[in-house]
Amino acid sequence: MKKLKYLLLLVIPLFFLMLSGCSKLNLSTTKKSYSADGLVAVVKGQANNYKKLTYTVNGETKKVAVDGGHFAISIPVSASDQNVRIKAVNGDKTETKLVKVKKAKALEDYLTFAQSYNYTLLSLGQQNDQLQLISKNGIITHKKNDGTKWYYNVQNNQLMGIATKFSYKDLKSKTGQKNFATDLMIVSKLLGADGKKVLKDFAKQTKNADKNSTKTSMDPITSKGVNYNINLTTKDFYMYITKY
Predict the structure, then answer these.
(1) Among 67, 71, 68, which Cα is nearest to 97's?
(2) Which of 100, 165, 170, 223 could form a disulfide with 33 if both were Cys (CB 3.0 to 4.6 A apart)?
(3) Does 147 lie in the same domain as 78?
């Protein structure tokens, strides 16, 4: 009996020590600095045994969504470096990580682009598809009457990137082809790129893209310093227009 009590005195503290070790607050990121991936930089990491997890960038704090202990935070890129502070809290315990989102090149002054874009659409009789001239920092969604959506990352009045999504089904119709070609030509021309070259290269690569289920991206298209990156899914393609 004495041996049993002695054994319990040794085992029980060890058991609780193991429990406290398992419940230790933990926060980590995959890198210390992140670069643009499309319109955003994706900060990835792990968090365990927290009660509250947030990130702060440019004075704004938001909650972090976690799935299975892993998180991915999308930060719209800017023309300046950005510091991102990730904070995990559990009672009186706090863990903090500071990472940097590297600056990217702006495509154009946003107001200049929006004014030229609206003027062009007016000349084509598309007065209902005008871009807003003033934008807060962030990614704005521009939905056109034809149902297509274009996304603009605007930071400090600078147009940092443009993205859109089209389905293979739309591209098989004459109307869909015309809408996409017109929009891409307008955007490319306003950014100083060769829209005809971009469309030609795009047509070559997407000819059989919907039949190749294993392919997830196309070769990057570059024209006069403007980059077009295309990601593929089984039904749609996503295009990201940026400068490196």
Answers:
(1) 71
(2) 100
(3) no
Q: How far apart are CA 141 and CA 163, in angstroms?
A: 10
Q: 56: which residues sit within 8 A by CB, 6+ positions away? A: 62, 84, 85, 87
144: nearest Cα among 118, 112, 167, 169: 118
From residue 151, how far is each of 132, 138, 159, 166, 188 by CA, in Å? 12, 10, 11, 12, 15
C-alpha neighbours within 13 Å on the C-beta side of residue 38:
16
Domain boundary among 79, 103, 127: 103
Whether residue 19 is contained in a domain is answered as no
Percent of the chain clearing pLDDT 90 (strictly above): 73
Which CATH number does the domain housing residue 80 bear? 2.60.40.10
**pTM assigned to the model:** 0.85
For residue 52, the enclosing domain spans 31-103
Q: What confidence tens digit (pLDDT) does each residue in 74-120 have?
A: 999 999 999 999 999 999 999 999 999 999 999 999 999 999 999 99
Which residue, 137, 134, 131, is CA-closest to 154?
Answer: 137
Q: Is the pLDDT of residue 137 over 70?
A: yes
Whether residue 59 contacts residue 82, with contact meaning beta carbons closer than 8 Å, is answered with no
Whether the CB-CB separation of 77 and 153 falls below 8 Å is answered with yes
Last residue of a domain, one of 50, 76, 103: 103
Same domain flag for 76 and 186: no
